[in-house]
Write a structure and sequence with these properties.
By secondary structure, the chain is of the alpha/beta class. The chain has eleven helices and eleven strands.
Length: about 280
């Protein structure tokens, strides 16, 4: 008797991947948790996987019929490694793929936008998740979290622009639905929280929740680019600063009903996130 087909979760210890694994396991699905170190994950079968080592693809795909895709971190051309893997996955029997992209990158756009464009032609069942900025960007070891702790400040070039910040818990819940619902979304899904907030709003909420004053310091595009360029390559620093400038111009000032529509529950608020993380 064959074991039931498994879902391969790439990036299984990451921000969304770990939550996707947990959600699938709770629902009783067989999961292969893929990562470069094959780190043990409760309830799942750990398997080694590295985008840059095609020799790891075969074992990861063995017995798998659906896959959650996290692109290689920091790659400017993820399609170069992802498309050969996806073609191998299709040949190995994978019929549903759910890709994590970004609200800032449309199909056919730069980087993962090329994978997004190719996905419907590779798999009969698919979804591309395009979340807005993660609420988790303000917690843990992230640059914003560090500047909040060290300077009591959030530094951006977003001006008064607003963002529909979304909780990684909600992204993962949508991913689980997209992977397991009888009917795949076969769609490009914009994911946001319930409100579009400015970084001034975010600073005010964190101040109220923690009782410690946090301010939003408004930088120019050039100031932010140069600040990033001290730590990362100039090209990447320029791209990140450009994303802030796009927010200032209104590119992320929106909300969607996707979380409610797919999961049956409303998305979490930033205040609920802050109370959970900072209280």
């Amino acid at each position: 008797m064959h074991a039931p087909s498994a879902t391969l979760v790439i990036g299984a210890t990451g921000t969304t991947g770990s939550r996707v694994v947990a959600g699938l396991v709770v629902e009783g699905h067989r999961v292969k948790a893929a990562g470069r170190s094959a780190t043990p994950v409760e309830g799942a079968e750990a398997v080694r996987f590295d985008w840059n080592e095609p020799a790891t693809f075969g074992e990861a795909l063995d017995g798998v019929d659906r896959v959650y895709l996290i692109p290689p971190i920091g790659s400017s051309d993820p399609a170069a490694v992802m498309l050969p893997f996806l073609r191998q996955a299709r040949s190995a029997g994978v019929h549903r793929a759910v890709l994590l992209s970004s609200s800032a990158i449309p199909a056919g756009g730069p980087a993962v936008g090329q994978v997004h464009q190719a996905l419907p032609g590779l798999f009969e069942q698919w979804a591309v998740l395009r979340p807005s900025w993660f609420m988790q960007n303000f917690a843990g070891l992230t640059p914003h979290a560090r500047s909040i702790r060290e300077d009591g400040a959030i530094l951006t070039a977003t001006g008064d622009g607003r963002v529909g910040f979304v909780d990684a818990e909600d992204i993962a819940a949508v991913a689980v639905c997209a992977l397991t619902d009888e009917q795949a979304p076969d769609a490009d899904l914009i994911l946001t929280g319930p409100q579009a907030l400015s970084y001034d709003d975010v600073a005010a909420i964190i101040t109220e929740v923690t009782g410690r004053r946090v301010e939003h310091r408004h930088l120019t595009f050039e100031q932010l680019r140069d600040r990033w360029a001290a730590e990362i390559p100039l090209e990447f620093a320029t791209m990140l600063a450009g994303m802030d400038r796009a927010i200032a111009d209104g590119a992320e000032d929106r909300t969607s009903d996707t979380v409610q529509r797919l999961t049956g529950r409303p998305p979490g608020t930033f205040r609920a996130f802050a109370e959970r993380e900072f209280s």
